[in-house]
Automatic annotation (TrEMBL):
<keyword id="KW-0325">Glycoprotein</keyword>
<keyword id="KW-0433">Leucine-rich repeat</keyword>
<feature type="transmembrane region" description="Helical">
    <location>
        <begin position="229"/>
        <end position="255"/>
    </location>
</feature>
<dbReference type="InterPro" id="IPR032675">
    <property type="entry name" value="LRR_dom_sf"/>
</dbReference>
<dbReference type="GO" id="GO:0016020">
    <property type="term" value="C:membrane"/>
</dbReference>
<keyword id="KW-0677">Repeat</keyword>
<keyword id="KW-1133">Transmembrane helix</keyword>
<protein>
    <recommendedName>
        <fullName>Leucine-rich repeat-containing N-terminal plant-type domain-containing protein</fullName>
    </recommendedName>
</protein>
<keyword id="KW-0472">Membrane</keyword>
<dbReference type="InterPro" id="IPR001611">
    <property type="entry name" value="Leu-rich_rpt"/>
</dbReference>
<dbReference type="Pfam" id="PF00560">
    <property type="entry name" value="LRR_1"/>
</dbReference>
<feature type="signal peptide">
    <location>
        <begin position="1"/>
        <end position="24"/>
    </location>
</feature>
<keyword id="KW-0812">Transmembrane</keyword>
<keyword id="KW-0675">Receptor</keyword>
<keyword id="KW-0732">Signal</keyword>
Length: 278
């Protein structure tokens, strides 16, 4: 996880540290107060006074907040029975590297605005009640190592773009309501050495299970869809065969009936035939 500050000249980094640790960041304040407004549940020390100055250099008195150089860089609030929606303004915590809101009761969509968190490496929103689609914009968070969205109520396809996240080492979207094909670049496929797929294509079935309408490697191909296509073909063939059999037996019955009506009067004829000719 390399941060942009590492690439800055030393004096600029030092100046930035001094500046940021002395003055509270208005973006972080906006981010934290919107979180507070959205989430119901008691977070310790989450008060207006602390939002205005969330960081004292590297430490924060806000529960679940970790700071780095005077900026919020980690939000860790798992298992606190938090309810409500994830506010789009969370994206104002622009230095955030790790977001863990797992095992709460959060509902509503994953805001596409989170794609503005360009330093985000860990996204853990697992075990909530989140719905809607997985935002394809998340692919612009190039440092993402972990995407854990398991056990929610997410719908729609897995965006192909997520397969382009070359640093992804954990990807879990199991137990949602996702549908469609699994992106080839996310599947465990033995690709040509050096190809992007060789580094990114490393997730097995356990990352995708529990989504009824998701299909393709490493899950079975065209699950559900394949069966219904087979069923349609089967029903078509079966009903064709059945109507053939029915019409054939109808013809047989008709033939037998006409044969019988033909032989009925014929019996007299036969008898008369058997009569010796005089
Ligand atoms: C809340 O803030 C006080 C200082 O005002 C601090 O002593 C305490 O540890 C903080 N609580 C948490 C959970 O960080
Ligand atoms: C804060 O977040 C909102 C929602 O994503 C966005 O519209 C706004 O531009 C952000 N503000 C800043 C200063 O980045
Ligand atoms: C995400 O959070 C859950 C629950 O808090 C935890 O069990 C899981 O290991 C986390 N995922 C990752 C990839 O760390
Ligand atoms: C799937 O991969 C994970 C690591 O990503 C591993 O822990 C697990 O055992 C694998 N499961 C199977 C069935 O290969
Ligand atoms: C990925 O697939 C290869 C064979 O294609 C297999 O040897 C390997 O164990 C798989 N990895 C996981 C994590 O399932």
């Amino acid at each position: 996880m390399s941060r942009p500050t590492q690439h800055l000249p030393l004096f600029a980094a030092a100046a930035a540290i001094l500046l940021l640790s002395s003055a509270a960041d208005p973006d972080d304040e906006r981010c934290l107060s919107s979180l507070h407004d959205s989430f119901s549940g008691g977070l310790r020390n989450w008060t207006k006074a602390f939002f205005a100055a969330p960081c004292e250099g590297f430490i924060s008195h806000l529960q679940g907040v970790t700071c780095n150089n005077g900026r919020v860089y980690k939000l860790s609030l798992p298992g606190l029975a938090l309810a409500g929606a994830i506010p789009p303004e969370l994206s104002n915590c622009t230095n955030l590297q790790s977001l863990d809101l797992s095992s709460n009761a959060l509902s509503g969509p994953i805001p596409p605005d989170l794609s503005a968190l360009l330093n985000l490496a860990v996204l853990n929103l697992s075990a909530n009640r989140l719905s809607g689609a997985i935002p394809r914009d998340l692919a612009s968070c190039a440092y993402l190592n972990v995407i854990d969205l398991h056990s929610n109520q997410l719908t729609g396809p897995i965006p192909d773009e997520l397969g382009l996240l070359v640093r992804l080492s954990t990807f879990d979207v199991s137990y949602n309501r996702l549908s469609g094909p699994i992106p080839v670049l996310l599947a465990n496929r033995s690709a040509a050495p050096g190809a992007a797929a060789a580094r990114t294509g490393r997730f097995n079935a356990s990352s995708f299970v529990g989504n009824k309408d998701l299909y393709g490697y490493p899950l079975p191909p065209m699950r559900g869809h394949g069966l219904s296509v087979l069923a349609i073909v089967g029903i078509g063939l079966g009903s064709g065969l059945l109507s053939l059999i029915l019409s054939f037996s109808a013809v047989c019955l008709w033939l037998r009936a006409t044969d019988r009506t033909a032989t009925m009067p014929g019996e007299e004829g036969k008898i008369s035939h058997l009569m010796p000719d005089y």
